[in-house]
Model the fold of this input.
Amino acid sequence: MDPFLICFTAGAGFLLSILLFLHPLQQNVKANIWLGFFVLTISFAFISVYIDTIGVTVSNHLLFRCLNALQFLMAPSLYISILYFVKPAKHFQKEDLLHFIPFVIYFCVELLWSTFNIKSLFSLSLFSITENISFLVRDILPFLLLFYLVKSYVVLKKHKLNLKIITSSIEKVDLNWLVQFLFILLIITFVWINDAFFELPVLTKATNLLYLGGIIFLAVFSIKQKTIFAFNENDLQEISEVIETPKIETENVSTKPKERKNRKRLTEEHISDLSGKLISLMENDKLFLDNELSLPTVAERLGVSIHDASFLINEITNDNFYNFINSYRVKEAQKLLKSSEMDRLNILGIAFASGFNSKTTFNTAFKKWVGVSPSQYAKKTQ
Done:
């Protein structure tokens, strides 16, 4: 590996970690602190690789042992960061400590071995794969990262569904940039496994460049990120409860009607009354034209809790908030496409005038409810 590139990547990582720790816009603060710690562990890993590359014999030095131990914090800190991004009222809990057990075990053993001047645990062979290849303790790291990458991806996919419960616009806060970052890390992990066992030259040379590219990518999107849950503390707690509520109340469900009836939050009379108010807000006040409309806003207008508003929408539509609002927007767009407004506005203008805040979302939603694209629909109705 190129020592200069290793140092440059480590330096870029240290700079990015500081940026994340002290994010200038103070957005998603706790999530960014953990993400910064993840990047910091990568930077320390490169320092360790640099020391090894230039041939300095410090494998038994306590500081070098500690640098190696920090790599066992890499995967868990990424996962904890993801949890803070997607959970609006998350606090660090005792069960979160379980993710750091591999680090604690490794660190304690390393400290014990250092007192007896035994060679670092990092390069200890656990078992032989072939005659020339052994599985070392350090080879646990890429597989540990792979495990947490899968867990993180599952959490982010669930987050995208959860957003549809509480907001009508998810494009800026769906964390797709983190999904892309996980994909970059996945490629890096496979290159890391290659470096440990197969040593294919092309992949080995690409390792540092991929890490550097990943850090640059993360830096760009970290600066551009939006606050995921831009609500006050009381609303955040309720939103958290709504997200964590059993699916019977928050998503499309196939639960038996009898079971649903037994678990209702609102009486039939209350549902009937609130349904009328909700329909009036949509059809008379056209609340859906607010392209940043969220469940807390609707709940406030209805005079009910966020949880009750979510339950109401699911009860009367058997669908989530996102689809409920966008169905009204599509109907509004159909009216505009058939009216004289079409001569004055283009498709993007119709999208914004209907309450959508992006052409992509507009096209996707329109085709879902109407069966054809907006432009095709406009041609048919002219």
